[in-house]
Amino acid sequence: MGRNRTKISPKLVYYNTISSPLSPARSGLIATNATGAFRSKTTQRVCLVGFKKLSDFHRLYVCSFLRIDITHPAESEESHWFFVRFWSVWMMAVLALYLGTVLMDETLRSLSPRGQFNFIIFALLIYSTHMEAFVIANLMRVCRKKWVEIIADCERLEERMVATSSMAQSMRSSAQFILYIQWLIIAFNFGINIINDFGMGMWNHYNIKMTVHMQATCYIFSFIGGLMIPSNATVARVWMMYFGRLFRTYIQQIAKLLREVLDSNDTLEAKVIAIDDLRVQLNHVRVIAEKLSKVLGVGILFGYGYTIPLLCIGGYFVTMPSMRFRVRAYFAAFAFAHIVSILVPVVIVAQLSRGIADLKRMIEEMSVRNAPPLLRTHLALLDRAVLTEDFRIDARGFFKADLDMFINIMGASVTYTVVLSQAHNRMFDEQTSDMSLLEV
Predict the structure, then answer these.
(1) Can you tell me where the transmembrane regions are (predicted)?
(2) CB 50 within 8 A of CB 414
(3) How far apart are CA 221 and CA 204, in angstroms?
(4) Helix axis angle, 76-108 to 212-228, nearest 10°
(5) Of 13, 34, 4, 37, whose CA–CA distance to 430 is shortest?
(6) 357 or 79: which leads in pLDDT
(7) How far apart are CA 125 and CA 191, in angstroms?
(8) Could you give the CA distance from residue 275 to residue 223 in angstroms, rounded to a whole number?
(9) What b/e readout covers 40-50, taking b as 16+ CB neighbours within 10 angstroms?
(10) Of 43, 108, 173, 348, which sits 20 to 30 A from 120 (CA to CA)?
(11) What is the spatial distance between Cα 160 and Cα 155, in angstroms, rounded to a whole number?
(12) Residue 298 to residues 65, 134, 176, 262: CA-CA distances in angstroms?
């Protein structure tokens, strides 16, 4: 009772040790705790690795904006408008951030300290998703010409596959269907977010007794959020699923035609000409995949930037013991849905790689038969025309959709969620112990 107890607030000190912009091993965030919140050495190491992975991801996420290919004069004007729209987008995001800050200040006055902490965490992550979703929308509009070019290339390729005219019609219909799906997703997200944000505003009005001025500000903020949240990140994944199925169909068709050519009774010269034509088609598929990777990869990257904060929100509120079971169950399903959305591009790329591997395996089996040397030579050229690494989503070299990427993102998200939960528990455990000492 007689001793004085000095309270030291938890403090995280971050050191940014980026020495090379492209060296993940030497860049990242190093976290140290001044009060021993992370008592376990294992926890400290896990947090250190997680912060490094998280910082590397966001560093590449920002650098992808700065690496724009303007080697062709025709793309310089597009790059100029890209930057103009980029900064206009962020000005709109700053306006939304300001309105949200005003609302948060009004709301925090009527909440308990624990509620204030949770509300601030939720609001900060929501602000980041608002800004990133708007950037995604801008990015997809800038790339609309490239989408048209990619679809035109696919149609020209399908015209060469004369044996499957019904496939060409099916793929063109699928492309139009995807265009309609885009608008449906945008409209659906807009409606859902308007209902959700306006409903939250009405809840605040009746439970927190917000003024009419603050209620109007809440509606304006909700409207801006509804414009930004129509998540073209989801649209990018829909496009990726479509093109993944499209490329698998192309590869399967090329494998089918190759088997028919080799099993036919045509002359050797006719078989060589047919194999060379298939090699041209396969190379055309590879070129389309490279174009798609440049356009779709950045969209998937920003889609992950949009999804990761929401995943952290879900994980954080699931781990809160003070939450009701229904709320925790909702956020558990919420987090699971975003985990699936992160895993979708990885699965699609893996399926494409497996299709290419099956094609190359079939070519090798055909080559070991008693085929003439000339036919073996052209089969070897067909085998070297494409690699499994050619069908990837890498966002201009900064990003690669594979299992390692999925593990890194999940590890960083889990680490960030654990840090939030531990900071929350330690903060309010110290407050509780202080109150008990005062009572004594």
Answers:
(1) 82-104, 116-137, 177-199, 219-240, 295-318, 330-352
(2) yes
(3) 14
(4) 150
(5) 37
(6) 357
(7) 21
(8) 57
(9) eeebeebbbeb
(10) 43
(11) 9
(12) 9, 14, 23, 40
Per residue in 129-161, pLDDT tens? 555 555 555 555 556 667 667 777 777 777 666
Confirm if 309 and 125 have CB atoms less than 8 A apart.
yes
The partner residues of 29 in beta bridges, in order of sequence, read 16
**Cβ-based neighbour number of residue 364 at 10 Å:** 12
Return the SS3 of 288: helix
Instruction: Determine the longest span between alpha carbons in the chain, in angstroms.
Output: 103
- In whole angstroms, give the CA distance from residue 430 to residue 180: 54
The ranges assigned to domains in the chain are 41-428
> What's the pLDDT at 63?
40
Residue 362 in contact with residue 255, Cβ under 8 Å?
yes
Cα dihedral: 70, 71, 75, 78 (round 10) = 10
* pTM for this model (two decimals): 0.58
Spacing of C-alpha 259 from chain mean position: 38
Which helix (H) or strand (E) segment holds residue 252: the answer is helix 232-263
List the end-to-end C-alpha distance of the chain, in Å, as a whole number: 7
Helix (H) or strand (E) holding 302: helix 268-318
How many Å apart are CA 352 and CA 392, to the nearest integer?
8
- In terms of pLDDT, which residue wins out, 63 or 84? 84
Dist CA 194 CA 117 (whole Å): 25
Question: Residue 44 and residue 422: Cα distance in Å, rounded?
Answer: 12
User: Does residue 143 sit in helix, strand or coil?
Assistant: coil
Closest CA to 105 of 96, 114, 116: 116
Q: Please tell me the distance from the alpha carbon of residue 364 to that of residue 359, in angstroms, as a whole number.
A: 9
In 3-state terms, what secondary structure has residue 16? strand
Nearest C-alpha neighbor of 406 from the set 360, 352, 338, 353: 338
**Cα–Cα distance for residue pair 440/384, rounded to 1 Å:** 79
* Spatial contact of 296 and 243, defined as CB atoms under 8 Å apart: yes
pLDDT in tens, 357-382: 888 888 887 776 656 778 778 888 88
> Can you tell me the distance from the alpha carbon of 317 to that of 321, in angstroms, rounded to the nearest whole number?
9
User: Please, which residues have CB within 8 angstroms of residue 154's CB and are 6 or more apart in sequence?
Assistant: 171, 175, 246, 288
Q: In sequence order, what are the residues at sequence separation of 6 or more whose Cβ sits closer than 8 angstroms to the Cβ of residue 350? A: 402, 403
Distance CA 273, CA 268 (A): 9
Token pair recorded at residue 377: 């030579």
**Pair of tokens at residue 253:** 């068709």
CB-based contacts of 171, cutoff 8 Å, min separation 6? 154, 155, 158, 246, 249
